[in-house]
Amino acid sequence: MLLRKSRSSAVEKALSPEEQRAKINEVRRIIGPLSEALPDFCSDASISRYLRSRNWNAEKASKMLKETVKWRLKYKPEAIRWEDVAHEAATGKIYRADYSDKYGRSVLVMRPGFQNTNSAEGQIRYLVYCMENAILNLAADQEQMVWLIDFQGWTMASVSVKVTRETAHVLQDFYPERLAYGIPYNPPRIFESFWKMVKPFLEHKTYKKVKFVYSDDVASQKIMTELFDMDKLESAFGGHNPVGFDINRYAERMKEDDKKMDAFLNSRGSTFSQQQPLVSLLQQPESSVSEAHSEASSEASSSSDSELPKPEGIKNLSENEIKGQSGCKNGVASGSEIQHDMIRKSA
Q: Of 83, 95, 200, which is closest to residue 145 (Cα–Cα)?
């Protein structure tokens, strides 16, 4: 759920590959030395996500990227390990499923009714760990994840406005364009009240990614069959897989993934380990960056509703629409580029 309402236009720009390339280069000019200091983090795939999130506005995308770098330097999400968050995971309130969707996107299962702690900080830290893990396990040509939300045991008492707002802030500002779809499955009637409270804070693009699914509605069920192999999908979401969450098996998977993350960071060198040089770059006066951007731009120019959606109102996803959510468009960022993109393993 996103915190601030529609900071980008409801009408998404459609840019040609050449125009997208120009925007990516413009962001690199604006952030200056930061691009060279974080070459993986500032890859084409990464910058493209930030640009898409801000409707291809280079100035806004650059500011957003720099704020993400500041957050990662302080929060160190890539350094969170299973032992740090295991107590939050005990009930299975959030976990990465052991299957992906049909397009190789990681799946996070969320059961807010299974909340087991009172620490907002701890809950957010575990969410960040799960998102980092989901990104780590993406298929080579993917950069987004799917959230499946199960309302078993959910009541209004399960809602924490503070955690909801912080979740919104983290997802929107530090993981732009990482969410392909959020699927609330069989939300109870009382959820309408919560949805009405949250919806005004959703950006238009994110709102379109939320697809309500009901087990007794054929039209909405088609969303699940289009996205998932039903033999792998859990029975809680209408699939044929009866295996439920097991904390012991899940703990072993996460420990193995922690080793994968350590190996990756060691092989590349921790991008955010040299904190002081990065802080110095981030503290550069904005005027100097703007002046450099202005000069570069000059050279470049000279050289060349508030109701809960009902089942009958849900739009079925076509194969093209589903694939269209899968990542960078028009070949600006290739699969191999995404595969070696540090953001897949970090932001």
A: 95
